[in-house]
What we know:
The structure holds 2 protein chains of 2 kinds. By secondary structure, chain A is α/β, with parallel strands linked by helices. Chain A has 8 helices and 10 strands. Chains A and B meet through strand 5 and helix 3 of A and strand 1, helix 1, helix 3, helix 6 and helix 13 of B.
Amino acid sequence: MANSIHVEGVSVEFPIYENSHRSLKNRMIDITTGGRIAKDLSRHPVVTALDGISFKIGHGERVALVGHNGSGKTTLLRVLSGVYAPTQGRLSVDGKTASLLDVSMGLDPDATGFENIYLRGIMDGLKRSIIRGKIDEIADFTDLGDYLNLPVRTYSSGMMLRLAFAISTSVEADILIMDEWLSVGDAEFSVKAKQRLDEMVGQASILVIATHDPALVSRICTRAIKLEHGRLVEDKPVTKEEPNTVIS
Amino acid sequence: MINFHKDLWRNHTRHNDLWVALMTPHVWLALGWHDIRQRYRRSVIGPFWFTLSTLMMVGALGLVYSTLLGKTLREYIPYLGVGLVVWQYISSVINEATTAFINSGYLIKQARIPLTIYAARVVWRNFVILMHSLPVVILLMMLFGKMPNSELLLLFPGLLILMLQGVWVVLVVGVVCTRFRDVIPIASNFITIAFFVTPVLWPVTQLKERAWIAECNPLYHTIEIIRGPILGTPIHWQSWVWALGLLVAGFLLAQYLMSRCRDRVAYWL
């Protein structure tokens, strides 16, 4: 079965309800960062974060979303993972999706490491028996040992990231949605982490990653989509420039 | 318009959100229990703190109001106890409903899971607290020499209705409060006022010819279907009609709101 993502004319507009914004008198267009700000009929300012985006992603593609801060990359990732329903247009996602938008999502500082692993599984809608089967593998990977029985708030920030990373990367998915490449921990752990992430990406049928790192784009991506002010301005294949292979 | 894969958990729509969530009870049961454990993590008697404070309140109010109402402690304390425990469930469900989605905003914006899960989680944790307090109140009642009779069997459908009422209340109040933040203080104000006009502290008979004030109060009937079976007083059929009618109307309203607004909630956070 072929996994795919179809995005047709998708727009996302955020109404801003804070009172302070209501005094915003001018319709502001073309500011350098962020989407366009306008007002809707009920006089709330509206931020157009995405404006008529269309593309198709098919099996095997590795897509990089590039663009300035506030160009709509993260919003688009959230649309793809189903958090924001498009205010206009159609979205069709075929495949089991996993999103790594914020790795520390849902880590409860007062719960123990093990409880956090369990909770995250619950949030993914997994049955208790399936989670139990995964807990050991995740625990091993973190190398946190007995710390997993202590509340997460007693962890150092590095330890917390290890746990969050191990949990987030334990899911199997056809479609992987990532906000920036994850790199965590000290030298030894980051080698392990990179390996695990590569493996996870390798198993996924589709990867969509928002990134500012050109090296990463040319290392893993096959296609780059560029956003500007919420509009799609460029969609082209990534050319692999690997001098060594050219010479030989 | 979104069209997702068959896996309903991630790919529910605004129309089946409610159903998908209610059909995955292991998720909200686990989350609700987790909340209870978190709340009382470093406390020795845990959720029984809630019971204890209710008992103290029953004791204090019982002494004063039994005198004011000219009733014996033996008949008044069980009435007050059951009413108060159910009231605390109702009021904390409504209170926590106002921030049910706002407090889970960081989760809602990370991954798509049915919103009703957050509602059922609030209901379940409060129901667990109720289940800690209610048996203690029944024991207290037996201590006062009042034994439950066969009416007690009706307690089970009553509790089921009470729990389900919570689900639609949290959905409706939660969605409205996420969009209109001014409703949050209004809701807590409403609860305070409702406490005094609902027969919790006083029996309906005290209203004399103005008994309609209670008869037209759905909160009264919601309490009555729990209080009646425990105290062994027969429930008027009107109370069942009110409670069931409220349940059906509430779920229709919740379903309508979800169909209209489920996909907007993330934008309002």
